Amino acid sequence: MNTRSLRFRLVAWHAGLLTAIFVLLAVLILLGLRHYLEADLRDTQARRAGQIADTLLANLKQTGPDFLAQEIESLYAPEANDRFIRISRQDGQVLYVSGPPKDQSFDSTGLAAAAPAPVPARKVKLPGNITLLIATRPFLAPSGDRYLVEVGAPTTPMDTMLEQLLTLLGIGLPLVVLVGIGGGYLLVGRALAPVDQISRKAERITQHNLGERLPVPRTADELERLSLSLNLMIQRIEDALLNSKRFVADASHELRTPLTVLRAELENLISSGHLTLELREAVGSVLEEVDRLGRIVEQLFALSRLDAGEARAEWVSFDLAELAATTADQMGLLAKDKGIAVSCDANRRVPVKGDRARLKQVVVNLLDNAIKYTPEHGVIQLRVAAINGRAVLEVSDSGIGIPREAVPHIFDRFYRVDQARTRDAGGAGLGLSIVRSICAAHGAEVDVESDVGSGSRFRIRLPLANGEKSP
Amino acid sequence: MRLLLVEDEKKVADVLARGLRAERFAVDVAYDGVSGWELASSVDYDLIVLDLMLPGLDGTELLRRLRHKGSNAAVLVLTARDATRDKVENFEAGADDYLTKPFAFAELLVRIKALLRRPPAGRDHVLRVADLEVDRLGQQVRRAGKRIELTAKEYALLEYLASHAGRVLSRTMIIEHVWDESFEGLTNIVDVYVRHLREKVDEPFERKLIRTVRGAGYCLTDENEA
Known about the structure:
- The structure holds two protein chains of two kinds.
- By secondary structure, chain A is an alpha+beta fold.
- Chain A contains ten helices and twelve strands.
- Chain A folds into three domains: 146 residues, 2-Layer Sandwich (Beta-Lactamase), CATH 3.30.450.20; 86 residues, Signal transduction histidine kinase, dimerisation/phosphotransfer (DHp) domain (Helix Hairpins, Orthogonal Bundle); 152 residues, Heat Shock Protein 90 (2-Layer Sandwich).
- In chain A, 53% of the residues lie in helices and 18% in strands.
- Chain A has a five-stranded antiparallel sheet with strand order 2-1-5-4-3. A five-stranded mixed sheet of chain A has the order 7-9-10-12-11.
- By secondary structure, chain B is α/β, with parallel strands linked by helices.
- Chain B has two domains: 114 residues, Response regulator (Rossmann fold, 3-Layer(aba) Sandwich); 95 residues, Arc Repressor Mutant, subunit A (Orthogonal Bundle).
- Chain B is elongated and about 60 Å long.
C-alpha cells in the first residue's frame, strides 16, 4: 500500500483522530466516575461515623461499652455488610472493633491504630490486595473524654465496577476505530475515484491524441473544477501544438516558391553556356545547397502532413516481407559499395495494411541509416517476421552505435548525435523523425537498442492485417 | 509550339518563361486566373502550364472550364500543394501531368516534352548516343559493337539517361523515374549507381559519355564539354 497516497493519509488521520478522541473520552469517564464513587463511599463512611458518634458515644458513661457493641451490631451489622467499625478512646483503648466480615472479603485484624492527629479519611492497604477506605471522626464527649470513631468499607466493589468499565471500553475502542477506518477507507475511496480515473486518462494522453479529454465527474465539487481546468489546459496545449505544426506546414509551403525561382534561375544560368568553368562550379555549388534546402522543406512538409493525420485513402494490404526484401535489394549496391554485407531474413509472408510507399520509406530510411553508420566491411541484418500477432521489422547493424544519452532524442527533428559524423552523410536529421511519424500514423511502435561500438537495432512493430494469423 | 504559362508568382513566371523561350517555345504569360482564362479560351495553345493557387480564378476551376469548352491543350499543373486528394481532384478536372514546387527546371522541360509527344531521342526502339546503343526491346546495351552486361537498375538508369540524351537530369528526377518516391532524399544512391555504370560504360573507352553537371545532375551526351 502506498503510504503517501491521499487515501491512506486521509484514513490514517481520520483513524488517529478517532482513537485520540475516544481515548480521551474514556480516560475522562473513568477518572470522573472513580472520583465520584470514591467521594460517595467516603461520604457514606463519614456520615456513619458521625451517626455513631452522635447517637452512641454521647451517653457512653451511662450505657457502657457492651451496649455500644450491641447497638452497633444491631444497627450496622458490620460483619454482614462488609464494614469495618472501630471506636477507640484517646488513650488508645479500643472500645469496639468489628470482626472479620462473614464472607472473609477482608481481614482487618492487623490494622494499625489511628494516627494521633487523624485525617478525615484514609486508605489502608490490607493483605490480599484489598483497600479499605476509612473515615475518621473525633468526638468530644460531655464527660470530657475524647473518642475516635473509624468507619471503613472496602473499595473492592468500586474497583470491580471501574475494571469492568475499562474492559468494556478496551473492547469498544478498537471496534469503533476499526469501523471508522473501514468506513473512512470506503468513503475516501469513493470520493477519490474520479482522481484515479483522471490520472489514468491523463497518462494516456500524448502529443498524438491531444484531441482526447479527461473525464469530468458531474459532482459540482473541487474535482469537477479540477478536471475542467485540466481539460482547458489540454485544449490550450493542443492549440499551441496545432499552431506550431501549422507554422511548419505554412513555412515549408511558403519556401517552395522562392526555392523554385532560385533553382530555375540557377539552372538557366548554368545551361546558358556563358559561364566560365570557375563560375559554373560556384553556381553548381549553390544549386547543390538549394537542392538540399528543397529536400529539407519537402521532409518538413511531409512530416507536418503526417502529423496532421493524412487520410488513409492510400492504405492497401501487402506483404511487408516482400517490400523489405525488394527495398534491401534496391539498396544493395549502396551497401556493397562500402563492403557491407546485408543479410535479409524475410522469407515468410507478413501481411500488413498501410500506405505502401510510406512504409517503404521507413525501410529505406532505416537501411540508409544503417549503411551510413556502419563502417566498411560491417554487417547489416534485416528481419521481417510475424511475432505474437504483430508484424515485426528489425534492422540491426554492426555500426558505431548510439551513445546512451542520445537514444531518447534520435527521433527528434533535426537532432544529430554529433555534428561531425553526419556532415558527410548530408542528412538534415529528419530521416528518423519521418520514420517515427509514419509509424505513428500506422499505429506502430518503433524502438531502438544500441551499444556504442557494437551496433544498433531498430525494431518496428505494427499490426498484422486483419484475418491473418501469425504462424 | 505555343505555350501558356499561368502563374501568379511573377518571379516564377518570368524565370520559367525565360527558360522555355530559350528552348525555342513561344510562351505567353498570365499572372492571374481571369487573364489566364481569357488567353486560354481565345488562343489555341499546345500546352498550358497552370499554377493552382491563383487570384481571381482558381486553377482547378480554370481547368474545368477549359475542358468543358472542349479544349485539347495538354495541361501541366504546377503547385505547392501535393496532398493526394488535390492530385486526384485535378486529374479528374482534366490535368495531364502534375509537378510540385520546388522542381528542377530540367524536369519541367522533360515533362512538357513528354506531354507534347516529342520524345527527344525519337521513337526508335534503339537509342544511340555516339557509339553507345541501348536496345529498349531486348534491354541490351552495346558500345562500339561490344555487348555490356548491366544489372536491371543500371540498365534502367542508362535507358533513362539515353532517352533524354543531351538533357541534364536531376538526381530527384532519376530517383523518381528509376526508383520511386520512397527513395527521395537518398540522392547518394544515384551517385553510387552512376559510378558503377561509368565503370562499365565509360571506363573501358576513351570517350566519356556520362557527364556530371555540378548542382544539376547527370547528362548522357557525346558533345564535348563547352
